[in-house]
Amino acid sequence: MTDAEPNVFRLAQDYESSALRWGEIESPRPKNKLFDHLTDVGRTLSETTSGQARLVDLLDNPSRSVRLLAGTCCLTFAPNLAEPVLREIADGPGLDAITAKYTLIEFHKGNLKF
Q1: Is 42 a domain residue?
Q2: Which long-range contacts (C-beta less than 8 Å, at least 24 apart) are formed by 20-27?
Q3: Is residue 114, in this structure, part of any structural domain at all?
Q4: Whole-angstrom Cα distance, residue 56 to residue 77?
Q5: Do 67 and 81 form a contact (C-beta atoms < 8 A)?
Q6: Domain range holding 58?
Q7: Sign of dihedral through CA atoms 101, 76, 15, 35?
Q8: Number of domains in the chain
Q9: 58 and 15 in contact (C-beta within 8 Å)?
Protein backbone atom coordinates (compact mmCIF):
# COMPACT_ATOMS: atom_id res chain seq x y z
CA MET A 1 0.00 0.00 0.00
CA THR A 2 1.40 3.39 -0.96
CA ASP A 3 1.27 6.46 1.27
CA ALA A 4 -1.51 7.89 -0.90
CA GLU A 5 -3.80 4.84 -0.67
CA PRO A 6 -4.86 5.28 2.97
CA ASN A 7 -5.78 8.87 2.16
CA VAL A 8 -7.82 7.72 -0.86
CA PHE A 9 -9.54 5.14 1.34
CA ARG A 10 -10.42 7.79 3.95
CA LEU A 11 -11.61 10.21 1.28
CA ALA A 12 -13.80 7.53 -0.28
CA GLN A 13 -15.29 6.70 3.12
CA ASP A 14 -15.94 10.40 3.69
CA TYR A 15 -17.54 10.68 0.24
CA GLU A 16 -19.85 7.72 0.85
CA SER A 17 -20.95 8.80 4.33
CA SER A 18 -21.44 12.40 3.18
CA ALA A 19 -23.49 11.25 0.19
CA LEU A 20 -25.69 9.18 2.49
CA ARG A 21 -26.24 12.22 4.74
CA TRP A 22 -26.88 14.42 1.67
CA GLY A 23 -29.69 12.09 0.64
CA GLU A 24 -31.34 12.41 4.05
CA ILE A 25 -31.21 16.21 4.33
CA GLU A 26 -34.27 18.14 3.24
CA SER A 27 -33.24 21.69 4.10
CA PRO A 28 -31.56 23.44 1.13
CA ARG A 29 -28.82 25.35 2.98
CA PRO A 30 -27.17 22.37 4.74
CA LYS A 31 -27.77 20.18 1.69
CA ASN A 32 -25.97 22.70 -0.55
CA LYS A 33 -23.09 23.03 1.93
CA LEU A 34 -22.67 19.26 2.01
CA PHE A 35 -22.88 19.14 -1.81
CA ASP A 36 -19.98 21.61 -1.99
CA HIS A 37 -17.98 19.31 0.29
CA LEU A 38 -18.86 16.31 -1.87
CA THR A 39 -17.77 18.19 -4.98
CA ASP A 40 -14.38 18.96 -3.40
CA VAL A 41 -13.83 15.38 -2.22
CA GLY A 42 -15.02 13.95 -5.54
CA ARG A 43 -12.67 16.23 -7.45
CA THR A 44 -9.75 15.09 -5.27
CA LEU A 45 -10.64 11.41 -5.72
CA SER A 46 -10.97 11.91 -9.49
CA GLU A 47 -7.35 13.04 -9.72
CA THR A 48 -5.90 9.54 -9.15
CA THR A 49 -6.54 6.13 -10.64
CA SER A 50 -7.13 4.63 -7.18
CA GLY A 51 -9.54 7.43 -6.30
CA GLN A 52 -11.42 6.93 -9.56
CA ALA A 53 -11.69 3.22 -8.78
CA ARG A 54 -13.23 4.03 -5.39
CA LEU A 55 -15.81 6.31 -7.02
CA VAL A 56 -16.65 3.65 -9.62
CA ASP A 57 -17.19 1.16 -6.77
CA LEU A 58 -19.83 3.53 -5.36
CA LEU A 59 -21.89 3.20 -8.56
CA ASP A 60 -23.11 -0.13 -7.11
CA ASN A 61 -24.00 1.30 -3.70
CA PRO A 62 -27.49 0.41 -2.46
CA SER A 63 -28.25 4.11 -1.80
CA ARG A 64 -29.69 6.05 -4.75
CA SER A 65 -28.15 9.23 -3.40
CA VAL A 66 -24.68 7.70 -3.31
CA ARG A 67 -25.11 6.31 -6.84
CA LEU A 68 -26.41 9.67 -8.08
CA LEU A 69 -23.52 11.67 -6.68
CA ALA A 70 -20.85 9.11 -7.61
CA GLY A 71 -22.36 8.82 -11.09
CA THR A 72 -22.22 12.56 -11.55
CA CYS A 73 -18.57 12.60 -10.48
CA CYS A 74 -17.70 9.58 -12.67
CA LEU A 75 -19.03 11.28 -15.80
CA THR A 76 -15.64 13.00 -16.17
CA PHE A 77 -13.57 9.83 -16.42
CA ALA A 78 -15.96 6.88 -16.87
CA PRO A 79 -19.08 8.09 -18.71
CA ASN A 80 -19.69 4.60 -20.07
CA LEU A 81 -20.16 3.38 -16.48
CA ALA A 82 -21.83 6.47 -15.02
CA GLU A 83 -24.47 7.15 -17.67
CA PRO A 84 -26.40 3.87 -17.27
CA VAL A 85 -26.53 4.41 -13.50
CA LEU A 86 -27.80 7.95 -13.93
CA ARG A 87 -30.33 6.83 -16.57
CA GLU A 88 -31.68 4.19 -14.20
CA ILE A 89 -32.10 6.80 -11.46
CA ALA A 90 -33.65 9.26 -13.94
CA ASP A 91 -36.30 6.66 -14.80
CA GLY A 92 -37.39 6.43 -11.16
CA PRO A 93 -39.45 8.66 -8.89
CA GLY A 94 -38.56 11.73 -6.88
CA LEU A 95 -36.07 14.54 -6.81
CA ASP A 96 -33.11 12.21 -7.40
CA ALA A 97 -34.70 11.26 -10.74
CA ILE A 98 -35.06 14.88 -11.79
CA THR A 99 -31.50 15.63 -10.72
CA ALA A 100 -30.15 12.63 -12.67
CA LYS A 101 -32.15 13.58 -15.76
CA TYR A 102 -30.89 17.15 -15.86
CA THR A 103 -27.34 16.10 -14.97
CA LEU A 104 -27.30 13.92 -18.08
CA ILE A 105 -28.85 16.66 -20.23
CA GLU A 106 -26.29 19.22 -19.10
CA PHE A 107 -23.43 16.72 -19.46
CA HIS A 108 -24.37 16.05 -23.07
CA LYS A 109 -24.63 19.77 -23.73
CA GLY A 110 -21.09 20.16 -22.36
CA ASN A 111 -22.25 22.44 -19.56
CA LEU A 112 -21.08 20.45 -16.53
CA LYS A 113 -17.87 21.66 -14.94
CA PHE A 114 -16.15 19.55 -12.30
Answers
A1: yes
A2: 20/63, 20/65, 20/66, 22/65, 22/69, 23/63, 23/64, 23/65, 23/66, 23/96, 24/65
A3: no
A4: 10
A5: no
A6: 4-109
A7: negative
A8: 1
A9: yes
Rg of the chain on CA atoms, in Å: 13
The b-or-e profile of 62-82 (16+ CB within 10 A means b, else e) is: ebbbbbbbbbbbbbbbbeebb
For a pLDDT cut of 70, what percent of the chain falls above it? 95
Contacts of 112 (CB under 8 A, 6+ apart): 72, 75, 103, 106
- CATH number, domain of 55, equals 1.25.40.70
Amino acid at position 82, single letter: A
Is 52 among the domain residues? yes
pLDDT, tens digit (0-9, with 9 covering 90-100), for 46-99: 999 999 999 999 999 999 999 999 999 999 999 999 999 999 999 999 999 999
Give the HSE-up count for residue 80: Cα atoms under 13 Å, Cβ half-sphere.
0
